[in-house]
Specification:
By secondary structure, the chain is α/β, with parallel strands linked by helices. The protein has a single domain, classed as 2-Layer Sandwich (Chloramphenicol Acetyltransferase), CATH 3.30.559.10. The protein is about 45% helix and about 15% strand. It contains five helices and five strands. It has helices spanning about 1-10, 40-50, 55-75, 85-95, 100-110, and strands at about 15-20, 30-35, 115, 130, 140. A hairpin with a 7-residue loop joins strand 4 (about 130) and strand 5 (about 140).
Length: about 150
């Protein structure tokens, strides 16, 4: 959630955000996308920037946003994600030589923020932005060491 808040404060708007989730529960499972910029996270971000919102309300909204985010992770990990499904529909449409205006619109929307957790054994002890070929994409690497 902190990355959503920082990105909003930096850019002034919400963007399509990529966050990877593992699907290793399945044979040959790799990743699924968690779209961490949600209605719930955007409501919390707006509340954080509104001086008329109480801290109690901000905490309540943060909990709602975090709960929704965790549910998205659980859904992605158990095969209920959306992005790999959309990609499969795209591959099938190309195989069948069918044009899908829906898929063309959805799949051309650019990612503007990409977040990835790096291993705890990584030598870097701070979040950093990695270089990317897309100048409009902010890629943030972070290490989750708060539970250690």
């Amino acid at each position: 959630m902190a990355l959503q808040l920082a990105h909003y404060r930096d850019s002034g708007h919400f963007n399509l955000t990529y966050e990877a989730s593992m699907t290793r529960l399945f044979r040959n499972g790799r990743t699924e996308t968690v779209r961490s910029c949600s209605i719930e996270s955007s409501i919390w971000v707006k509340a954080m920037n509104d001086p008329n919102i109480t801290n109690t309300e901000r905490i309540r909204l943060l909990r709602l946003a975090c709960d929704y985010h965790q549910q998205q992770y659980r859904d992605a990990m158990t095969g209920k994600g959306i992005d790999r499904h959309l990609f499969s529909l795209y591959v099938i449409s190309k195989y069948l030589n069918l044009d899908s205006p829906f898929l063309q619109q959805v799949l051309q929307e650019p990612w503007k923020l990409s977040t990835s957790q790096v291993s705890v054994s990584s030598h870097s002890d701070f979040a950093r932005e990695k270089e990317h070929s897309n100048p409009n994409l902010h890629s943030i690497l972070y290490k989750n060491t708060c539970l250690q």
